[in-house]
């Protein structure tokens, strides 16, 4: 069983000092204490600051107590991320772990690193148009397939597959993972349901998702919407807010991803149907292991490759897990992702008791 993620995050916070946006001093060339730079794309999605960063940093320190760490969050600003990467290279970073704001437009940054002989790990989002050392992520097409299948199953049980249309709220068009999620969902849904409206949502923004859902309700009519394919939990929350405002008597099944706390609570109370639970700890720790190894001049073998349009990139792809209300206890709670006391607050307590969570 994994230890509590929040506990890990607290430990990480005490271990890491001077690791704010570019605050550490690089030590290029020191194979015993390499400088590792982590770049995350945004903070609207809870996972990045709450889990990815502290888990990555804690694992680096566990493997290499003397390693230096540089950290930057781009706040969904590609130009800001470019400045952050260039600053880290100037400071002497030995390895870059890059979750790109715009993964199709960072080849020039990777090229700058290559010119300095600094290896790059693409984290969570596949970088295209240039070669680099590793890609660490989840099987993103499988995520979309699982979301699509869960939605189809829920509609089939409700007898609504042929009673109306669904709305698809996809992620940011600058994130190649979004295209994978969308493709996976379409594999399952095309020809089986009617897609009334489909949106690609800039910045994965819950507010924009709410606006998109409002547009869909206006165009299709409240009573004609029988399902919502949302690519993540934040946007699912936005869609649910729009449906509440429109006076939906009951929520149609709606999907999500990331197992955000609010989403887990919505799943238990019946507002959201499911989420995709990602083992972010495994992803962050694998990236940390690879970063330390690269910093020490090693290059571990990868189990598979992913074609990024230029090269087959050595890759580590982790499996997603679909979680509905009946699976929260044996996945999210069992793993310590959240404690029962964190989930079962206020009006959620009764739903927790019904699901056997205490």
Automatic annotation (TrEMBL):
UniProt cross-references to Pfam families, sorted A to Z: Peripla_BP_4
GO CC list: outer membrane-bounded periplasmic space
Entry keywords, A to Z: Signal
Signal peptide: 1-24
Domain Periplasmic binding protein: 36-299
Entry-linked InterPro entries: Bact_Solute-Bind_Prot2, Peripla_BP_I, SBP_2_dom
Protein's cellular compartments: Cell envelope
Chief localisation class: other
GO molecular function: carbohydrate binding
Protein name (database record): Solute-binding protein
């Amino acid at each position: 069983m994994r230890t509590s993620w929040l506990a890990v995050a607290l430990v990480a916070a005490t271990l890491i000092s001077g690791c704010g946006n570019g605050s550490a001093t690089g030590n290029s060339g020191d194979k015993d204490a390499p400088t590792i730079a982590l770049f995350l794309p945004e903070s609207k999605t809870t996972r990045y600051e709450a889990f990815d960063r502290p888990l990555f940093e804690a694992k680096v320190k566990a493997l290499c107590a003397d390693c230096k760490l540089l950290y930057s969050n781009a706040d969904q600003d590609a130009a800001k991320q470019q400045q952050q990467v260039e600053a880290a290279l100037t400071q002497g970073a030995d390895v870059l772990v890059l979750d790109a704001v715009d993964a199709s437009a960072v080849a020039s940054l990777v090229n700058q690193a290559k010119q300095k002989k600094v290896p790059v790990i693409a984290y969570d989002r596949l970088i295209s148009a240039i070669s680099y050392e590793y890609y660490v992520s989840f099987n993103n097409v499988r995520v979309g397939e699982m979301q699509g299948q869960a939605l189809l199953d829920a509609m089939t049980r409700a007898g609504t597959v042929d009673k109306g249309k669904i709305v698809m709220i996809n992620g940011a068009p600058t994130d190649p993972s979004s295209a994978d999620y969308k493709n996976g969902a379409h594999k399952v849904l095309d020809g089986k349901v009617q897609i009334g409206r489909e949106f690609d949502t800039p910045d994965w923004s819950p507010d924009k998702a709410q606006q998109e859902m409002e547009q869909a309700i206006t165009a299709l009519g409240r009573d004609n919407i029988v399902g919502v394919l949302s690519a993540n939990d934040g946007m699912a929350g936005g869609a649910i807010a729009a449906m509440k405002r429109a006076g939906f008597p009951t929520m149609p099944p709606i999907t999500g991803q990331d197992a955000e706390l609010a989403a887990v609570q919505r799943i238990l109370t019946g507002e959201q149907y499911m989420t995709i639970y990602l083992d972010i700890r495994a992803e962050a720790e694998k990236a940390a292991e690879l970063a330390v190894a690269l910093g020490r001049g090693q290059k571990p073998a990868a189990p598979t490759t992913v074609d990024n349009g230029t090269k087959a990139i050595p890759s580590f792809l982790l499996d997603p897990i679909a979680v509905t209300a009946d699976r929260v206890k044996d996945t999210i709670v069992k793993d310590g992702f959240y404690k029962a006391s964190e989930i079962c607050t206020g009006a959620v307590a009764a739903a927790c008791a019904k699901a056997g969570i205490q």
